[in-house]
């Protein structure tokens, strides 16, 4: 979440007249993240988040917004889109598709423990179960097709060693497909900074704009590669107690299949590859913005190398 498209208070106040949420009292830019323009919004009626979509295809936006609305109706603590006076979730602001959603309470955790990972696993399982009745269809937009396109775009910037590592992993992943694994709507980007805790419990999950239809085990792997590290700064190996807490609490609500266990090491690699590629792309092919945060791609380059190492065990529950 960055600011690529500035919005003044006067511009936003005019736009806000299309909503029944009160009068604007405060508009604050959100500087974290890298995909869309976001502002915290406070009105005389409540607190919200404004999002301007910078590069997501307009045809995909209803999938994300309707998924959030669906999950919120099923008790998942996620932002609920606010409909305007024309009963639309989407409208235009400063030439960009824009939406207003509820703002969640709580704060993100920088150093989650095993209990926090267990809380996440249970929430993720409930989310996957709730999403089974969602009728939207959108294949994971950052899946294998995107990997190949992004790799072709960043390869000219890579030294021979990194280019060879990237090509080898793409070849490896192309040899493994898991069409028979349980699938459905997944968040696909549920990092620590996309979840909020309040009193030891998850009070909200947000930033669904990489969601799509994919394997549930892949969604778990994305979480494990960020939440379950020994030390996110110094040791990127999986911490066994944290990983087992994540998987165990998930398994208690949506039992994991034997095929998911067999695919787990490859899902961890696939999740690492996806974020290594996206960070390489953001580093070498950046977009201009007023406030832009670019993450170090080598963080996930190292995670991928660790997950691909033949001696690296992948903790599993059961």
Would you kindly provide a written description of the structure presented here, covering whatever features stand out?
This protein is an alpha+beta fold and 318 residues long. The protein folds into two domains: 9-102, 2-Layer Sandwich (Phosphorylase Kinase, domain 1); 114-308, Aminoglycoside phosphotransferase (APH), C-terminal lobe (Aminoglycoside 3'-phosphotransferase, Chain: A, domain 2), CATH 3.90.1200.10. It contains nine helices and eleven strands. The strands form four sheets. It has a five-stranded antiparallel sheet with strand order 1-2-3-5-4, with helices on one face. Helix 4 (144-154) runs antiparallel to helix 5 (160-174) and helix 4 runs parallel beside helix 8. The longest helix has 27 residues, at 258-284. The radius of gyration is 20 Å and the shape is globular. The model has no long low-confidence stretch (mean pLDDT 93).
Compact summary:
With 318 residues, the chain is α+β, with helices and mostly antiparallel strands. It has two domains: 9-102, Phosphorylase Kinase, domain 1 (2-Layer Sandwich); 114-308, Aminoglycoside 3'-phosphotransferase, Chain: A, domain 2, CATH 3.90.1200.
CATH superfamily (homologous) name of the largest domain: Aminoglycoside phosphotransferase (APH), C-terminal lobe
How many whole angstroms does the radius of gyration measure?
20 Å
Residue stretches low in confidence (pLDDT < 50, at least 5 long) are none
CATH fold naming of the largest domain: Aminoglycoside 3'-phosphotransferase, Chain: A, domain 2
Query: Major sheet: order of its strands?
Result: 1-2-3-5-4
Give average pLDDT, whole number.
Answer: 93
User: Structural class, please?
Assistant: alpha+beta
Give the CA-CA distance, first to last residue: 37 Å
- Secondary-structure element string: HEEEHEEHHHEEEEHEEHHH
Q: How many runs of DSSP E, i.e. beta strands?
A: 11
Query: How many domains?
Result: 2
CATH class of the largest domain: Alpha Beta
- Helicity, as a percent range: 40-55%
Which descriptor suits the 3D outline? globular
């Amino acid at each position: 979440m960055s600011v690529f498209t500035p919005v003044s208070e006067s511009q936003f106040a005019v736009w806000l007249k299309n909503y029944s949420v009160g009068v604007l009292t405060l508009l604050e830019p959100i500087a974290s993240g890298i995909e869309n323009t976001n502002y915290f919004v406070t009105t005389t009626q409540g607190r919200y988040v404004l999002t301007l979509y910078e590069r997501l295809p307009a045809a995909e936006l209803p999938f994300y917004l309707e998924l959030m609305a669906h999950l919120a109706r099923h008790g998942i603590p996620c932002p609920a889109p606010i409909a305007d006076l024309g009963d639309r979730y989407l409208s235009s602001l400063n030439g960009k598709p824009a939406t207003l959603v509820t703002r969640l309470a709580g704060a993100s955790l920088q150093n989650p423990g095993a209990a926090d990972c267990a809380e996440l696993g249970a929430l993720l399982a409930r989310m996957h179960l709730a999403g089974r009745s969602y009728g939207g269809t959108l294949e994971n937009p950052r899946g294998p097709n995107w990997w190949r396109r992004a790799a072709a775009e960043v390869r000219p910037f890579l030294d021979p060693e990194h280019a060879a590592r990237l090509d080898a992993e793409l070849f490896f992943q192309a040899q493994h497909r898991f069409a028979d694994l349980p699938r459905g709507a997944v968040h696909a980007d549920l990092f620590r900074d996309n979840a909020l805790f309040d009193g030891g419990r998850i009070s909200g999950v947000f930033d669904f704009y990489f969601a799509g239809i994919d394997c549930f085990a892949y969604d778990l792997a994305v979480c494990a590669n960020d939440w379950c590290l020994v030390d996110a700064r110094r040791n990127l190996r999986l911490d066994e107690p944290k990983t087992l807490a994540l998987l165990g609490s998930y398994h208690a609500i949506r039992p994991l299949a034997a095929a998911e266990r067999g695919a787990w090491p490859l899902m961890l690699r696939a999740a690492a590859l996806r974020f290594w590629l996206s960070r390489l792309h953001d580093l070498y092919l950046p977009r201009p913005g007023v406030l832009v945060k670019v993450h170090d791609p080598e963080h996930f380059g190292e995670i991928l190398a660790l997950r691909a190492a033949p001696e690296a065990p992948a903790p599993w529950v059961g």
